[in-house]
């Protein structure tokens, strides 16, 4: 049988080998670098939009991915939509369009009741107004952070709380350096102390995600920094993902790994804090 002559096909250089005529020493085949191992996703939003029922459009087309252990500062001028976005992301407020996956719960608009319960169990909140019950002791306020967790009906008063919860509350109070105030009434605390109790109350939930909406807004500069430092260090030490809003640009720069800026209903920028300049910050509020 006649053989069909094989056509001569020039052999291309092997992938990863430089052609010999470059003068450079040949290098071995490239080993594909391993894909970077991404930390688990904590929050994912795609095409998120929110318009309030009164027609007030807040944002549209927001995409966001927040991974475990990140500390994210959310900045933007008054009314930019920071608080609205936080609430949508954790299912406390229905969004108008888009899809959200927070702590593994995927929902459009709003989570269902079961999802919301699961979300609440894993999220700690701290707001500008600390929301403590003034006539109750610091210890009781902290233990009440357990409300909504399984077996939590006893958390309404520390006298009924399980011994282990009292010990846990004392431990988190020690973490915010307030163990000596455990039996004080909450309304006898200074603003900074009250905010530290609010942090302890959030921590006792052992949250995977800590949401803080202007946690230092009503505090003097020194106490405000103190609160932000406590937040940031506790989040890092406990592996908690922290998302906070602030109007203080120094707080955004000093206590986050990443800054997300909202402007004109969009994500204006979203980048590692080390790559954000003061000029970038300025652009969020002017121009
Ligand atoms: N319940 C509501 N109904 C209608 N509009 C609302 C409601 N809550 C907020 N808004 C409007 O939505 C926009 C975004 O408000 P949001 O509170 O999210 O902004 P923010 O960035 O948190 O502002 P700030 O820095 O002042 O806290 C504002 O125009 C506000 O007036
Ligand atoms: Mg707000």
* Beta-strand percentage range: 15-25%
* CATH-assigned homologous superfamily: P-loop containing nucleotide triphosphate hydrolases
User: What is the rounded distance between the termini?
Assistant: 80 Å
* CATH-assigned fold name: Rossmann fold
Largest sheet descriptor: 6 strands, mixed
Tally the beta strands: 10
Shape descriptor: globular
Mean pLDDT: 87
Ligands, ions, cofactors? adenosine-5'-triphosphate, magnesium ion
Q: Considering DSSP H and I runs of 4 or more, what fraction of the residues is helical?
A: 25-40%
What is the helix/strand order? EEEHEEHEHHHEHEHEEH
The class by helix and strand makeup works out as alpha/beta
Low-pLDDT runs: 1-7, 9-20
Number of helices: 8
**Strand line-up in the sheet with most strands:** 6-7-8-3-9-10
Number of domains: 1
Our Rg estimate from Cα atoms comes to 25 Å
CATH architecture: 3-Layer(aba) Sandwich
Query: In CATH's first tier, which class applies?
Result: Alpha Beta
Sum this structure up briefly.
With 287 residues, this protein is an alpha/beta fold.
């Amino acid at each position: 049988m006649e053989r069909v002559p094989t056509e001569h096909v020039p052999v291309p250089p092997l992938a990863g080998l430089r052609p010999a005529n470059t003068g450079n020493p040949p290098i071995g085949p490239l080993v594909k670098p391993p894909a970077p191992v991404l930390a688990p996703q904590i929050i994912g939003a795609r095409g998120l939009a929110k318009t309030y029922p009164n027609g007030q459009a807040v944002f549209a087309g927001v995409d966001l991915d927040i991974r475990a252990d990140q500390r994210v500062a959310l900045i933007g001028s008054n009314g930019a939509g920071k608080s609205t976005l936080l609430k949508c992301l954790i299912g406390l407020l229905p969004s108008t369009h888009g899809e959200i996956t927070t702590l593994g719960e995927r929902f459009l608009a709003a989570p269902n009741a079961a999802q919301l319960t699961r979300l609440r169990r894993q999220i700690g909140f701290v707001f500008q107004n600390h929301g403590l019950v003034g006539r109750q002791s610091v210890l009781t306020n902290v233990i009440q952070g357990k409300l909504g967790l399984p077996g939590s009906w006893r958390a309404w008063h520390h006298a009924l709380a399980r011994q282990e919860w009292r010990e846990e509350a004392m431990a988190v109070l020690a973490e915010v350096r307030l163990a000596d105030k455990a039996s004080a009434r909450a309304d006898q605390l200074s603003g900074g102390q009250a905010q530290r109790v609010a942090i302890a109350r959030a921590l006792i939930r052992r949250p995977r995600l800590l949401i803080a909406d202007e946690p230092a807004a009503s505090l003097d500069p020194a106490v405000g920094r103190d609160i932000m430092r406590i937040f940031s260090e506790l989040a890092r030490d406990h592996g908690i993902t922290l998302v906070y809003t602030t109007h203080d640009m120094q707080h955004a720069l000093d206590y986050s790994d990443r800054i997300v800026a909202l402007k004109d209903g969009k994500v204006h920028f979203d980048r590692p804090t080390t790559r954000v300049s003061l000029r970038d910050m300025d652009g969020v509020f002017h121009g």
